[in-house]
Structures are given as C-alpha cells and as structure tokens.
Amino acid sequence: MLIQSVLAFSFLFVASYASVQDFCVADLSLPDTPSGFPCKDVKKLSVSDFVYSGLGAAGNTSNLIKAAVTPAFTAQFPGVNGLGISLARLDLAVGGVVPMHTHPGASELLVIIEGTICAGFISSANAVYFKTLYKGDIMVFPQGLLHFQINSGKGPALAFVSFGSPSPGLQITDFALFANDLPTEIVAATTFLDVAQIKKLKGVLGGSN
C-alpha cells in the first residue's frame, strides 16, 4: 500500500511538472493581466525574444535628480514574462540621487559597477540601514520597503539592479506627494510640512492644488 501511494504521488508530480511551460514570452499586443501578459505563439518565437540590448548605453542624467534608470522589464524585454526576474541599469551623475521609493512587487539587488553610491532602506519598524558602496559591492532592498541611492563620489556612478519580478512596480515618495493634484491642505495634515514648503515642492515637481 505504501509503495502504491509513493508511485501514485511520483506519477502526479511528474505529470504536473511536465505540464509546466518552459517559458511564456509576453505578447505585448494583448492586455496585461494580474498574472502577466498572455504568451506569444511559440511558433512565432526566435532567439531575439530572449535577448535584450537596451542596457548597453548610458541613460540621460540631464534631469532634476541627475539620474537615469533604464529598465529591462516585461514591457521592454518580453522574454522575462512569467520568469520572476528582471534587470535595470542605473546611471547617476555627480550629485545624482534616486529619491525614496518602493517597489511593491519585488525585492531588489543592487551591484555597483563603477563609482561610489550611498544606498539604504527603512524597515517597517523604522530602522534605517544604509552604507557607502564601492565597485563590486552588492546590497539588497526587501520588497515594498522605502529605499534610496545617492552618488556620493566625485565622478559618475553606474550600477545594475535585479528584481524578483518581471514587473516590480515603482512609487517615488516625492512624486506621490507633490507631483499630483492632492490638495495642499491634505498633504500638510498628513506630512506635518508647512503649506509654503508644500506649494514650493508642488511647483518644482509639477503638482497642483
């Protein structure tokens, strides 16, 4: 009886494993779903669906934060659809910063390629973990927690970040508060900032009200 049960379990395991697809390259012509994009017809696939060359060039850091993030998420690299992974390139000019932000859908791993970056995160218990990182250093940022990166060196910095999701999501705290039409009175009541400062930040970041 025991042997029969083991054999039955083994058969079910093998059958379920065999039914799993090798991959599901995103068909970006169809709507996204909570479980990812529908799969592109396997007969229409080529090796190009599994290769992405968009991270070889530096991003444009001529902006307010002096930083550029070049993603290789599902929308840019359909081959990662359903695989639970993705990558991005981070370029930071001198004085560049990626402000406090979260990725609701994934943890992040940062590896420094060139330059010096001060990076850190804040736990749900409000404990702060930050460190100055150098070439070859790696730091992890747990899913959903506020974190940041600052170029703390004297030259440009380059890093690559990997995520545990093909679509990790992004919410930058400053833009969430000051780059929309949330009334100034509500922002003041929920952040304890004075109205003049809030209006100044809304003016810088493009918010209203």
UniProtKB/TrEMBL annotation:
GO molecular function annotations of the record: manganese ion binding
Binding site for Mn(2+): H101, H103, E108, H147
Entry-linked Pfam families: Cupin_1 (PF00190)
Binding site for oxalate: H103, E108
Keywords for the protein's UniProt record, in alphabetical order: Apoplast, Disulfide bond, Manganese, Metal-binding, Secreted, Signal
UniProt keyword Secreted present: yes
Domain Cupin type-1: 53-199
Disulphide bridges: C24-C39
Family: Belongs to the germin family.
This protein's name: Germin-like protein
Organism: Mikania micrantha
Classification lineage: Eukaryota, Viridiplantae, Streptophyta, Embryophyta, Tracheophyta
